[in-house]
Amino acid sequence: MSENESSLTEFTVQGFSDSPQLQFPLFITFLFVYLTIVFSNLIILASIVSYSHLHTPMYIFLCNLSVIDISYTSTILPKLLVILLTQCKSISFLECFIQVYFFMCFACTEVLLLAAMAYDRYVAICHPLHYSILMSPKQCARIVLSVWVMGLFDPVLHAILIANFSYCRSHQIDHFFCDITPLLKLTCSNTFTIELCTYINGVLLLISAFLLTLVSYVFIITAILNIQSAVGRHKTFSTCASHMTCVIIFYGTMICLYMRPTSTYSPQDKFFALLYIILIPMLNPLIYTLKNKDFTKVFKQFKFH
Prior knowledge:
By secondary structure, the chain is mainly α. It has helices at 3-7, 20-50, 57-86, 93-126, 131-134, 137-153, 156-163, 180-184, 192-225, 230-258, 269-289, 293-304; strands spanning 10-13, 90-92, 172-173. The radius of gyration is 21 Å and the shape is globular.
């Protein structure tokens, strides 16, 4: 590494626009989005913790999903808000690599948790008589613990490799946060190892979780079609369809953005990243509570109190 490279201690995050007139409107927009994500997920957490009848595997998974959504948006949006408000776009090397690690950590955890939630619904709908055995409290705890442990340790190798690269081409990150692909575009180091790790990891984790989720929903939909009541069939299918929409958007954007060569990265990709950074965490609280009888009862109790 040259003296010039070693003396550099920060990156510059390009964000969405260089226009000063757009910075404050963007700040207000992202502040509203961030507060919406945090408060809506906190309401879900408070509801599940406060009411004992919600202490079931489905709601325990949902509670963890809310924690993840708050966590990984909090890894990215507060820094983006500071950049938009102050127009100081610098981010230190250390802060950048910490952001990369925790974003990957929470994203991997959500990938696994969505698969676990789909499996939980498959067991509940397709094997209701065996549900208490297959999804016992101990089994649920094991799944949740496994999801978090795998999520925490999965990005370690990526983070170490990225932190040890030399960045001599540019220090301008053409994104709104420190994401792995735009960082690899800036390095002069050989990226073969980390790209290979990304593909292997993507197949073993991302695509496998997506296929497990997809298969679970295929069995769920098949079971729904066998429901005798047309009203019950329509209601269950509409709920299932909304869940599937979120899952496809989340997995789809992840696969499209990360399961491809670094050389194909485009600045327009940062707009697609908004789908899983902002849209999914905003939709999850609505989708998992809007048509849910248990939450409807809880919200009514809140209203009357």
